[in-house]
Records
---
Amino acid sequence: DAGVTQSPTHLIKTRGQQVTLRCSPKSGHDTVSWYQQALGQGPQFIFQYYEEEERQRGNFPDRFSGHQFPNYSSELNVNALLLGDSALYLCASSLSLARGNEQFFGPGTRLTVL
Amino acid sequence: AQSVTQLGSHVSVSEGALVLLRCNYSSSVPPYLFWYVQYPNQGLQLLLKYTTGATLVKGINGFEAEFKKSETSFHLTKPSAHMSDAAEYFCAVSVPINSGGSNYKLTFGKGTLLTVNP
């Protein structure tokens, strides 16, 4: 079992550009959540996908959007990049939306916006 | 609103000494609490979790945590630190993100960096 995988590992973009990050959940998991972790901070919830629908989102602007595919993999898209979007983006998968179910995290994608 | 406060952004201990990482939470519903560890350039790994039942929870790598409702705390301990324990530790609380209470997200503290001195 490969666990949660994310691609790419690192990414450098300039302000105003668009970026797409990808996540493959752990085998058997159907729920994907995305988090943004700024330097020196804890992860902040962006949104969660289940059954190919965005179930809820955190306090992030519409520039952040996502998608979940029938195989449960997911993408995070960020448009009109700002310097403040520089962060580690973490994908986490879990089995269903049950509260106590463990979320398994991927290694993250390090996004740098210049 | 639910939140997590980790006291001490940096804790330094000697190898073999007691590790104590502090976490206090606020929650409008009975909390589900988690401790995660993050090694450099890696994602988060679950150490342990409290949902219901026994308030003393044992996790991986010799860590344990005790849920104390009266103190709204969930402190992480390990009797004897090892060099390999050096990492960043995050406390998190699972909170409902819809009115029906069927969807949940994790709210994290800002983290505590643990360094272990030889």
---
Amino acid sequence: SQTIHQWPATLVQPVGSPLSLECTVEGTSNPNLYWYRQAAGRGLQLLFYSVGIGQISSEVPQNLSASRPQDRQFILSSKKLLLSDSGFYLCAWSVRNQPQHFGDGTRLSIL
Amino acid sequence: DQQVKQNSPSLSVQEGRISILNCDYTNSMFDYFLWYKKYPAEGPTFLISISSIKDKNEDGRFTVFLNKSAKHLSLHIVPSQPGDSAVYFCAASAGTDKLIFGTGTRLQVFP
């Protein structure tokens, strides 16, 4: 069966520090991969999605970037975090015409 | 521009009764709709979906209704159980794997 792993579960970072969140998927090949952010009291906002290695589409201009160095690995990064980057970050995967499946998320707090 | 709207941020229902969660959308190109359930500190879990060629889909206690002319869908949970207490997100897509999410409705089922 397919599983998705996302870490860390919680992270507290100072303003201006770098960020790296990692997501890996097991049990499937060539999945679509997604990064979402849920800000407090808001819905899920799609940040990036990828249909293959090295193929990244950005949905909103922001302080973050994404990379897909391997088929089932998706990384969310920032060189310098802002206070507004606080939120709940979710990774998801899907295969064509099937629902997306989410990891358990990372709670990011910027101080 | 919020293409998918959940206008009720919260709903409280007695155990055993019906829960009805509503969702409105503005994009007439949406052809696939999903409901996700989310517990605190966890990622959303896929619940049920419906294609635009249907107006109803049922899975156990969960039924989704789609009214294309009104651009409205609803999720019915019958009978409601305390374990159903969670935040429910509706989502939609338009011929791609990218989902647009609503802001969620918090359902509380009380004894």
---
Amino acid sequence: NAGVTQTPKFQVLKTGQSMTLQCAQDMNHNSMYWYRQDPGMGLRLIYYSASEGTTDKGEVPNGYNVSRLNKREFSLRLESAAPSQTSVYFCASSVVRDLYGYTFGSGTRLTVV
Amino acid sequence: QQPVQSPQAVILREGEDAVINCSSSKALYSVHWYRQKHGEAPVFLMILLKGGEQKGHEKISASFNEKKQQSSLYLTASQLSYSGTYFCGTPMGAAGNKLTFGGGTRVLVKP
């Protein structure tokens, strides 16, 4: 049982380049999330998908786009990377009801130079 | 509005106790607690619901004071494995699963 799988684990981009972070879960969860974590800080929500076909902005959505490809997959795209987007990105999933916690992926460490 | 955690860091000797607080400026109906070890993903510990009972995980327990809009996490008889950063998460809206997280409390348990 893999849980939540993120790819890649590490990435270095040049300013202005684009890339897509991939996330897939095999737990049949409806809700999926993208968070970023900066050094010494908590997790901040970028985008959220309550169910297949729906997405919603979180606390820090500027500079990002998302796609909920199907129930399993939720991708995050940086169209034109900036140094301020250097961070660790976590994907997470959960069931719909607020009785269960999130399952997080292992993270993608992104550096924009 | 992100919840506020205190203290920001705590150092313990094995066997000692500690309390981590999580406060919100708005009414809460649930609080999540997670632990993150260095270089790893956060791991869900427990959820506290409004009107619910105090929860426990290993010798880690938590309480939820709805009137004070606050939750506390209790590390009892701490073990080396308790080291890590603890985060509380609270719902962003009246319903749904979107969580906003506190800034975290770094816990170091020494032998």
---
Amino acid sequence: RKEVEQDPGPFNVPEGATVAFNCTYSNSASQSFFWYRQDCRKEPKLLMSVYSSGNEDGRFTAQLNRASQYISLLIRDSKLSDSATYLCVVKGLSGTASKLTFGTGTRLQVTL
Amino acid sequence: GAGVSQSPRYKVAKRGQDVALRCDPISGHVSLFWYQQALGQGPEFLTYFQNEAQLDKSGLPSDRFFAERPEGSVSTLKIQRTQQEDSAVYLCASSSETAGYGYTFGSGTRLTVV
């Protein structure tokens, strides 16, 4: 079983739609949680951090449920420019390192 | 520099050839990570450096893979006797804190083994 699991999609939604992505992680000792965005043939870039109290950044809302080991990302009023792969990312300790563990990514395609 | 620089951007290697991939992190960044991303997958951890010390190499898939960061800045990932399954994008990331928060990724090296 992978440490971080996501539905790979693709999610095809019309412009203006609301779309939600979910992710589960297996290591209960994980410390920090993030969503990264990756455009085709580009490097991953940090979209936002995820907290138990929830985190909102404009049209994007991220939520963490530690008890269920579940992370979500909600995108409201989707734009064409939101089309990308969204990577669920968990940070934990590995010895003295603190490495990021990525999910497979969920592909989003926003259409006219 | 302004960001993490990786070279070459693309590399085509014949099976059995040795390759060396370079990462130039943001100046002063203590932590440096290498990741491997296969097509349609998320990045997979390979190895981690804190300054010149390689603290975690648990993700290196075989002893054909070797990484170094001798002076605590530029890092090189070397793959010996490349195989087709090594074809992937190799991403380097650096961070200013020893805890590795706030990673900046380079654009990656796309390796194709033929």
